[in-house]
Amino acid sequence: MKPLVVAIVGAGPSGIYAAEALTSQSEVPVQVAVIDKLPVPFGLVRYGVAPDHPSIRSIRNTLERTLERDDVSFFGNVAIGRDLTVEELRSVTDAVIYAYGAASDRRLDVEGEDLAGSIAAPDLVAWYCGNPDVHPETSGAADHPHRRNPVEDLIIGARETVVVGAGNVALDVLRVLIKEAEELDETDMADEVLEVLGKKSVTDVHLLARRGPAYTAFTTKELREIAKIENVDLVLDPADFDLDEASKARITKDKVAARNVAAMQDWLDRPITGAPRRIHLHFWTRPVRILGTDRVEAVEIERTRLDDTGRVVAAGPLEPIAAQLVVRSVGYRGTALDGIPYDPNLGRVPHADGHVIRQDGFSPDEYVTGWIKRGPTGVIGTNKSDAVETVHSLLNDVSDEALVARHDIAELTSLLAERGIKPLDLPAWQRIDAAEMARGQSHGRDRTTIVHHSELLAAATDPD
Ligand code: NAP
Predict the structure, then answer these.
(1) What is the mean pLDDT of each run of 10 residues along the chain (464 residues)?
(2) Domains delineated in the chain
(3) Residue whose CA is at the smallest distance from ligand 1 atom 16
(4) What are the backbone angles phi and psi of residue 329, rounded to the nearest 5°?
(5) How far is the CA of 376 from the centre of ligand 1 (A)?
């Protein structure tokens, strides 16, 4: 039986889990092309998971096993929309699965949001994880005259920082900002990222949660971690833990909420030691305006409460918190890609069970999985069941003969070659991998991330 050629756009966990779901069934033979605009695979496992979470980052070893299969090929450094249009990709493959994630940020919609010193968490995360898209070739050592990445100046200059949002990304950002750079030495962070972090002088991180302690989006393990950071005082307002009836009802129903509240209640008993750095958790608080002339100088905050419909509304006077850096960590957002249906209200590709819906009904050959399918929620493992659902829809269409194998993967390879595009394959990634490990080991670490496109391409080059 001729194999079905399936292109997956995005080599993050959602794309690779889709490849795994396609190749671990035996009903329909497949040839899978996993395409990514970056030279390297693994998406947010490499460029989103915090570098001080090595066990979560090591999921990439499992993902790599899927890319090693004979019926899976990796096409790195190929951008759909730039190198090939979606229509061209569809014309040389039998089916396409979009798994390109949600790379943009949600807006706060407050005055001053675009002042220098106000940055979106996804940009900061991409910077400290070493994503080449935010490390221009001229960035580098903190005193490099042509350094362009604005994040670097902002971090070096900030003492007081406000992080808006009460999710796991806010905790990741908070840890990176408040930890001593030496505490991050054992991670795989790039040397130039560590160098900038070594020059930071952050003393206070204020985390703003617009609802109460019973409503955070933290997972308890990640929350508890912040109490283990050394030389840091945790500052909480005991009044926030005088729970109202709705909060009490919530923790009765929701085990994670109950554990989170219990963890934070324990911290109320911790003495304030006069440590050199502080984490302040502000509940029932939201930013109203970011203040400053040329750059952020303070954040005006207000107290909040929930109205009868559960909406967050204003509940108190305005007051400023001094800050030189504001990190908006209120969620990621999917973006439109030319030629792919997109719902701007939801920031997702419209679908039913992963089968893409176009204006005139179901697309004959397009599917979607991961954050661009369901929104930026869940942990990495959530993408596995999500991919299984999408692949199930695709396989059903094969059973119904709505989807038929007509193409050969060589058509994709030839089209790219005609364009002069040289995809980076799995051996190319393995050479980058080896170069990163060698770079790290020469400094007594397991790995040092290579951040610049040119260096990644050089490391990928086969010496023969
Ligand atoms: P998230 O979990 O959706 O949290 C977003 C936070 O922003 C919520 O506290 C939300 O509050 C708040 N927020 C939203 N709009 C706001 C506004 N206009 N003003 C003030 N606050 C606002 O998003 P995330 O932290 O970006 O994480 C994305 C996903 O990745 C999550 O599923 C997360 O668990 C996962 N992740 C997991 C890990 C890990 O397992 N270690 C690490 C990082 C990320 P409301 O609840 O009031 O809306």
Answers:
(1) 96 98 97 98 97 95 98 98 96 98 93 94 95 76 50 88 98 97 94 93 97 98 96 97 96 98 96 97 98 96 95 94 97 94 96 97 98 96 97 98 97 97 97 97 93 94 79
(2) 4-103+334-424 (3.40.50.720), 111-328 (3.50.50.60)
(3) 330
(4) -115, 65
(5) 9
